[in-house]
Amino acid sequence: DGKSRGLALEKKIEYLESLNDRISLVPRLTGDEIRGLFAPPPFGDEAQPSPFSMTNVGEWDKFRNIDMDKEAGAIEALKGSSSKKKSSVDADKIAALTAWHRVDCRTREAFRRSFLPELVNGFEVNIRAFVSEATNEEVLVMYAQDPFHRLLLHGVCEFYNLVSTTESETKGTKVLKMTKIKKKKAGNKELPTITLCEFLKMAKDGFWLPECLAL
Asked: Which PANTHER family does the UniProt entry name for this protein (predicted)?
């Protein structure tokens, strides 16, 4: 009996030592941590205001108490504005594709094979200004001595629905090639919003379907 009491005492001592070791592993609490043990109020610090209580102020009254009819009208107006923008963008795409299909198929292939953006952009700046400002009787004269460059120039003219012819001009001992550009009598006077350079860049980036470009 005395032996069993001795074993029980040893087990109790071992348990207390183990418990003491566990307590010593826990670091001391800081002042903030101790105060946190007594939170929420009235014992601890004041609670932070919730998002709902923060909106319960006068500045939000107009938002909370908006008339349902006005809200529906505002939503419909936003939808209408979005659809108008979308239809405008779609119209620009259609106009650009229509202009592209005016270009001769061999010239379209030349643009796809070797697109020279700086050269084409230079042609476009002059031609767009001519379409916007010139009368039907005026003629725009541009010079391109390289045969491939002239091909691209004629392609730009076709994109903008213009008539272009190339003639030879003699200056001293030199024979220069000049391209005369005129407006069609019954041509469309509106400029495509999307330029040929932009159209070709979009095509290079995969924006247009291949079948659209090949038509």
From this structure: R3H DOMAIN-CONTAINING PROTEIN 4
